[in-house]
Amino acid sequence: MTTQQLNIAVLESVLAGSDSTEREDFKTIWTAAGAVPQAGLTDADQEARVRRALAALAVADSASRTSFAQSTTLRRVVIARVSFAVAAAALVAAVAVTLWLQPVSRSAGTGERIAVSLPDGSNVTLRDGASISYPRFFGRSREVSVEGEAFFDVAHDGSPFHVMTFNAEVEVMGTRFNVRAWPEGMDRTTTVTLESGSVALSSTANPNAQSKLVPGETKRVLSDGTVEDVSGLALDDALAWRSGALIYHDEKLGVVLEDIERRFGISLTLQPASLDTVRMTFSSHNPAGVESVITTLCAPHGLRFRETSDGYQLYDPD
Known about the structure:
- The protein is of the alpha+beta class and about 325 residues long.
- The protein folds into three domains: about 10-100, no CATH class; about 105-235, Jelly Rolls; about 245-315, 3-Layer(bab) Sandwich (Phage tail protein beta-alpha-beta fold).
- The chain has nine helices and 18 strands.
- It has helices spanning about 10-15, 20-30, 45-60, 60-70, 75-80, 85-100, 235-240, 255-265, 290-300; strands spanning about 105, 115, 125, 130-135, 140-155, 160-165, 170, 175-180, 190-195, 200-205, 205-215, 220, 225-230, 245-250, 265-270, 280-285, 305, 310-315.
- The strands form three sheets. Strands 1, 2, 3, 4, 5, 6, 7, 8, 9, 10, 11, 12 and 13 form a 13-stranded mixed beta sheet that branches. A three-stranded mixed beta sheet has the order 15-18-17, covered by helices on one side. Strands 14-16 form a two-stranded antiparallel ribbon.
- A hairpin with a 3-residue loop joins strand 6 (about 160-165) and strand 7 (about 170).
- Helix 3 (about 45-60) runs parallel beside helix 6.
- It is globular and about 65 Å long.
- The model is unreliable at about 1-10, about 30-35, about 55-70 and about 75-85 (pLDDT under 50).
């Protein structure tokens, strides 16, 4: 980037007509982005300075970012083309605006449960291994994407809120509910449990066929797009993961093991593999470690386990 000095007088004329707040904000960003070169900097140093400015802009206040992105000043500066430095700074700002429009992604690691605050004040808790993606700021509608299991406490602001999974959509106005949606593994369904309020569940294959839930109810979208009721699942059990518990009612052993793998970051195998479809009821309210969990899991079913190079194998001794 050239070290040619910017003509400040020309810049002031370009900014004429802007309100004082916009003018000062623009000049601050302009300087940070390197439109006013520093003496003695090489072109490489100047470019590095611009890159650092981009990083700073990416974490700037959202209201200021929105105001700057919608400003007409940027367009007038590009048209004016008072110098190469001006045009370069405008390009930097345009790239920064593009970065601001990229969604935010958060993920919970092995054994983690993390809290995420959305731009509208809604709160989300992610289970270990789960992830969420959402815009840096919401417009007239609010839409997020989830992979894994998450609990939502949605702020009521009059606009619709949508949770998208790999095969379903949940529509709500303001409520508390749980979403479980693992696109890989045995449980390829989206399961929604409603704690309070009201939500509508539909498959992405048939979005117009919505199924409404009432508090305490659980429904799921199957791989073929069918929406079915889930009976026999208590609300407290469905939400027990939020306190770290592992509780399952009439669930496939393979599904339970996948959750344990995500919790402890290990590999669990079965011998024979057909055991993964065995139905079981299991609870561990305060898991102290993976071996204690596996011991509690195996005992009622006559299974044993042995350590492997990357985890454990559960097997039928008969």
